[in-house]
Each structure stands twice: as C-alpha cells, then as structure tokens.
From TrEMBL:
Chain segments carrying region Disordered: 1-49
UniProt xrefs under SUPFAM superfamilies: Protein kinase-like (PK-like)
SMART domains, sorted: S_TKc
Residues annotated as domain Protein kinase: 52-329
Annotated organism of origin: Sistotremastrum niveocremeum HHB9708
Name recorded for this polypeptide: Casein kinase-like protein I isoform epsilon
Gene Ontology molecular-function annotations: ATP binding; protein kinase activity
Length: 354
C-alpha cells in the first residue's frame, strides 16, 4: 500500500473531499495522542486532506491497510481503511464497493459507522468507527478459548445483527473471528461485523426477488469458517452466513476444529479433506464438546433450502435456552472483562485494554 505523500496532496482534487482540509502551510495543533504516536514513531504518519491524522497500523490483508487515526478538528478516534489503486490494472476497486454496502447497512446495531469515504491521490480511504480488538485477538489472549457463557452472549448479538444485515438484502460471505470486533468505550459490550469486501446483495432492491441458484464458483470466504456449500462453489444464501457463524462460535469456544492442524501433501488435497469434514454426517464431530443446541443449529442450517428465510428467533432461542439452563444472565461480562468469573483469567496486555 502506498499512502499518498503530502506533496501529492497539495494537488489534491477538492471535489473528492467533503470536509474542510487543513492547509499544509498552517500546521494544525496536535492533540496528545498524535504527539504520543509520533514520539513512538509507530507506522507511517499521514495527515489526510480530509482532516485525519494516522496514528498506528491496525491490520491489513487482501487489498489494503487499516490504521487508527484521529480527526484533527474534533479529536475523535477513527479507523481508516486504505486501498491503493495504482496497480489496479483494470481490476475493480473494492473499497467503493465495500463503502456502498456500509451505506446500505447504515444505522444497524453492530455495524461500525462510516464517517467519510473518498480518494486522496490514488488511494481510496474509508474512514469509520474505531473498534476494539477482534474476537480472534480476544480468544488468543484468553488462553485460546472463550467460556461458553461469553460465546452464548456473543451468539445472541451476532444472530440479531446478521438478521438485520440480511433484512437489508446483504450477505456477508466472509464471517470469521478476524472480521468481528468489540466496540469501544460505552459500546465495549457490543460486538460488530466489519469487512464487507466479499459481501453481496442477495435480492433485487426493487423487486425483492432472490438471486438465482448457481454452481461452479471459486470457493468464497475463509476455508476454516465458510459453509460447506460455499466450499463447494455453490451460490450462497442466508443459511450459509448462519452456518459459517456457527463454525466461528464453535471455534471460539473450543479453540480447535477437526480441520485444525490438518496434514495433507498440498493445498488442494487439504481443502478437499476440509470439505469432506464439513459433511452433514460429520456435524456431530464438529460440535463435540459443545451443548447439543450447537448441533441442532447446524443441522437446521443444512436443512434450509438455498433461498429460505431462516428462523433467527428460533436460533437465538436455542442459545438463550442454554443460558437459562446454566443459570447465567446476559450481563455483558465477557471473559476479558474485569469481574468475569472465568477461571483461567486472561492474558490481555495493557495495549489491548480499550
Ligand atoms: N474499524 C476498525 N477498527 C479497528 N480495527 C479495525 C477496523 N477495521 C479493520 N480493523 C483491523 O484491520 C484488520 C484488517 O481489516 P479488514 O477490514 O478485515 O481488511 P481485509 O479486507 O484486508 O481483511 C482487521 O482484522 C482488524 O484487525
Ligand atoms: Mg478482514
């Protein structure tokens, strides 16, 4: 990724910016977090024409880099996802597409707010709500597994948010613990879906008609967590997002799946074995060590037809039933929270206390 340089920004096309740009000649007063970040020298420092100053890298992957940043005028912390379009060579830019999905999802609980989207130099920038650590980070720092209570509390919220996402005609198609994160501050008990780079509309916005079933796609989504249908290259529906959410929940609770540490001579062979391990008659093996409701949930997903509307309420009810049976209340005290009765404790380093 190349972040545009300040010289480049002097020729910046104002049309792409809809917020006042700080003049390069008049340095803006620095807020203390920026000073601190600069003193530590973490990450490339970039002051955007749209009024944001990057602080530190948060992550990156398939098509860009994400940085924490601060809005220079308000001091509000944000996250910025950058996509370099220099070497696009006719390939579609993904960030405008992801932004369009966020617009459709605007206002849903459990979806980060988007504050600004535009192009600076040759780089697309999506400025959004800064979230806390991802569920994968939290699992890691909670010694590899999350307690059943934490997983059930997350499951309840995640199913509801997925229901809202689906109700707006969107499929995620890339549900994984790295794409789910906790909120910050007063929202630190909320879990968020983000990264809609693989999202798509599954119904016509005007007619409401469901997309037709097709086969022969390249598998879409992370092999560890995607549904078996996605694995086999079938067109995905709402049931596939739900199935993949179940794999994520089981992974968070157990810290392993039958396909973890799989040995195979090459990647295609490994993928073939993984696909077979997701067969319907192997679901009990996948759910071993979890309450029976996880198996009921997964079997229900497998029974749904491609375009069927799932019964989200019933699925939430399954997990609420387990909570009730165990005598737990949904108090938002997760394993990583102070006061949690998690026996093993957590190893959360201070920089992850958000
Ligand atoms: N809004 C955000 N707040 C905090 N961290 C974020 C945010 N968005 C992304 N990240 C971090 O950056 C990583 C990569 O972002 P993501 O949108 O998933 O990009 P990619 O499409 O490359 O996977 C995430 O796994 C997460 O650690
Ligand atoms: Mg991602």
């Amino acid at each position: 990724m190349s972040i545009p340089q300040n010289e480049e920004l002097e020729n910046h096309d104002e049309a792409s910016s809809n917020s006042p740009s700080p003049s390069p000649e008049q340095p803006q007063p620095l807020s203390s977090p920026i000073k601190m970040a600069m003193q530590r020298g973490r990450g490339p420092s970039y002051r955007s024409a749209s009024g944001y100053q990057t602080l530190a890298p948060l992550g990156g992957g398939s098509f860009g880099q994400v940085y924490s940043a601060v809005h220079l005028h308000s001091g509000a912390p944000v996250a910025i996802k950058f996509e370099d379009t220099t070497h696009q060579n006719g390939k579609t830019e993904l960030l405008p597409y992801e932004h369009a999905i966020y617009q459709v999802l605007r206002g849903c609980t459990g979806i980060p707010n988007v504050y600004w989207f535009g192009k600076e130099g040759r780089t697309n920038m999506l400025v959004m709500e800064l979230l806390g650590p991802t569920l994968e980070t939290l699992r890691y720092f909670c010694r590899g597994t999350l307690s059943l209570k934490s997983v059930l509390m997350l499951a309840d919220q995640l199913i509801s948010t997925l229901e809202s996402i689906h109700s707006r005609g969107i499929l995620c198609r890339d549900i994984k613990p790295e794409n789910l994160a906790m909120g910050r501050g007063p929202k630190s008990h909320l879990v968020y879906f983000f990264d809609f780079g693989l999202g798509r509309l599954y119904k016509d916005v005007i007619t409401g008609e469901h997309i037709p079933y097709r086969e022969g796609y390249e598998p879409i989504g992370a092999p560890r967590y995607c549904s078996q249908a996605a694995f086999l290259g079938y067109e995905q529906g709402r049931k596939d997002d739900l199935e993949s959410l179940a794999f994520v929940l089981i992974w968070l609770h157990k810290g392993h799946m039958p396909w973890t540490s799989l040995l195979a001579p090459n990647i295609p062979a490994k993928l073939k074995i993984m696909g077979e391990m997701k067969d319907t008659d192997k679901l009990a093996e996948i759910c071993k060590g979890c309450p029976d409701e996880f198996l009921t949930y997964l079997r229900y997903c497998r029974e749904l037809e491609f375009a069927d509307a799932p019964d989200y309420e019933m699925l939430r009810g399954l997990f609420r039933g387990v909570m009730q049976r165990e005598g737990w209340v949904c108090d938002g005290v997760y394993d990583w929270c102070p006061g949690s009765d998690s026996e093993k404790g957590t190893l959360l380093p201070e920089r992850f206390v958000w």
